Design the sequence.
């Protein structure tokens, strides 16, 4: 498994497995505790796995958690997604930096999103299944949402946005969130 840094976001990493391919399809390891540990992440810290299914054009995000935040491993297990991370950690060398990565079921690459970063994605295929491995139990009182179409974020969504949740449609802009957000620095 190859691990590369995502330069626009301090601490973000891309894990790219090496699939074994034959006439049946492929097999690959999508998580390896030893590899995760070798780059300074505690593999035992992850306490929850979640899965979302989205249709083409759907945007989910931009989401993060206040306080301690939450780190996550994000992988598109089927289809393709345009994934976005924004660093909202005061004091981070990449504060307010933005990274975009295409994740797909073909590669099974996993993106590590550090705690304190906003995350969102857009489904690029008719069906896109996205898996999350999260390092904290969900606490709805810590949920923070930023408008996915905020001009300050200027996310270059590759497709017209076809659908979002009500929460995402009504989310405040980045400036408003930053006035009240409490995120611990890395």
Sequence:
């Amino acid at each position: 498994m190859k691990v590369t840094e995502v330069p626009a976001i301090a601490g973000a990493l891309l894990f790219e497995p090496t699939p074994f391919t034959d006439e049946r399809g492929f097999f690959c390891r999508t998580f390896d505790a030893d590899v995760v540990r070798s780059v300074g992440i505690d593999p035992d810290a992850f306490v929850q796995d979640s899965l979302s299914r989205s249709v083409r054009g759907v945007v989910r995000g931009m989401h993060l958690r206040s306080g301690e935040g939450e780190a996550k491993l994000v992988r598109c297990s089927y289809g393709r997604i345009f994934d976005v991370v924004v660093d909202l950690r005061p004091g981070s060398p990449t504060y307010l930096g933005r990274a975009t990565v295409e994740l797909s079921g073909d590669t099974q690459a996993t993106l590590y999103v550090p705690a304190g970063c906003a995350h969102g994605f857009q489904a690029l295929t008719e069906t896109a299944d996205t898996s999350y491995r999260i390092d904290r139990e969900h606490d709805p009182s810590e949920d923070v949402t930023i408008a996915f179409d905020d001009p300050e974020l200027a996310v270059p969504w590759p497709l017209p946005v076809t659908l979002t949740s009500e929460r995402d449609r009504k989310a405040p802009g980045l400036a408003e969130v930053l006035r009240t957000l409490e995120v611990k620095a890395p």
